[in-house]
Amino acid sequence: MPEGPELYKTARLVNTVCAGRVFHGKIVKSAVNQKNPEIHHNYDDYTIQAESCGKEMALILKPYSSVDSKELKKMKKETNSLRILFRFGMSGKFQFTSMNDIHKHAHLRFFTKEKPKMVLSFVDVRRFGRWETKDSWSENRGPDPILHYEAFRDNVLNNLENPVFNKPLCEVMHDQKYFNGIGNYLRAEIIYRADIPPFTAARKVLANLKVKEEASCDTKNLKEADILKLCNIVPNEVIQLSGAGYDPSGNHSDYSAFMNWLQCYSNPNMKNLIDHDGRTMWFKGEAGPLAPKGGKTRTARRYGKHKTKSENEEHQKKKVKPELEKKPSVKKERKSITRKGTEKSDNKPTASAVNLRKRKLSTTEDKVKEGSKKRATSKNSVLESSRSEKVPRRAVKSGKGSTATRRLSKRKKPNSS
């Protein structure tokens, strides 16, 4: 699921591609997306700007006019700007493409006025993403630890009496009212660096922290940083990485930098437990006193630098002897060619295959000739035997052969007396 750094990077991308561009016409929603509303506006041309806060991002549409500034000011007074609030769900993201390259899961599209037309699309493969027109951020979201660190710190430490802080630290860090933008991979990396058992009561960990503490992105002071400061430092590290950040599919080319950055999350050398909310918590060392009973775990996805030793050894063997692995596949191909014969013009049959076919044809022809000879001889022998025995007409008509002749012979025999 995209977290704070991914939405921050997406807003930055949208601002980059939309700078100096004018959008025009209707905003198109896909027919299959029934849960989200149509977006309507009352101006022909408009510009787009983006901003993020935690796990939310907003597009701000403003009317545009090529006339002088006085007329534009009048338009802005008459028509307010339109603000569309997005929550990305499990797989939401924005793409800026040509008309021919629109993603098949693009559920909201904004078209440029320029020619050839370009499209800004909200892409959501799993369709958990949501949007609505709203002038502010959601009420149940706290300050962003990346953009508003001091307000974030105050919001956490001034609310420690709330019963939610009786829960394990790792579960409280998923509460967007206090830890806006922190998700599964960020909490694992932050708690790992803080060297705290994840299932320790949150109030116990946070009670002795100072309310005022300056934000810092200096990695040299990581050992001195408390867990709230790490909520600012660690996401900023992801923002500074090349590429788009976290991609659950793992197929994107920009994903490698992020995978190399991870130390704890989805690492098969680390421990994991499914928390009380059903999410997987990755950690090192002790789980803590509030760990769920039963100790259910999940298998790690093994990719990137987090491969096990045995997997790395196998990978190196493949590098050393690539030719040995290819030979069996070549032999199989040859066998299939000899069996199939001349199915394709490229796959010509070998000399041995041709000889085999000739032998088979000759043997089948010989067998046919022998069979026909046998049938002819058997017919001749039957005719000769019937002539010599002089079978009566009645026996031949009956069609019963020797049994009919026996009955006639018995009748013709003279009495012994």
TrEMBL record:
Record-level Gene Ontology MF annotations: DNA N-glycosylase activity; DNA-(apurinic or apyrimidinic site) endonuclease activity; nucleic acid binding; zinc ion binding
GO cellular component, one term: nucleus
Positions of the Formamidopyrimidine-DNA glycosylase catalytic domain: 2-129
GO biological process: base-excision repair
Pfam family name, one: Neil1-DNA_bind
Biased composition regions of type Basic residues, renumbered to the chain: 295-308, 407-417
Name of the protein in question: Endonuclease 8-like 1
Stretches with biased composition (Basic and acidic residues): 309-331, 362-373
Organism: Actinia tenebrosa
Cross-referenced InterPro entries: Endonuclease-VIII_DNA-bd (IPR015371), FPG_cat (IPR012319), FPG_N (IPR035937), Ribosomal_uS13-like_H2TH (IPR010979)
Region of interest: Disordered: 285-417
Domain of life: Eukaryota
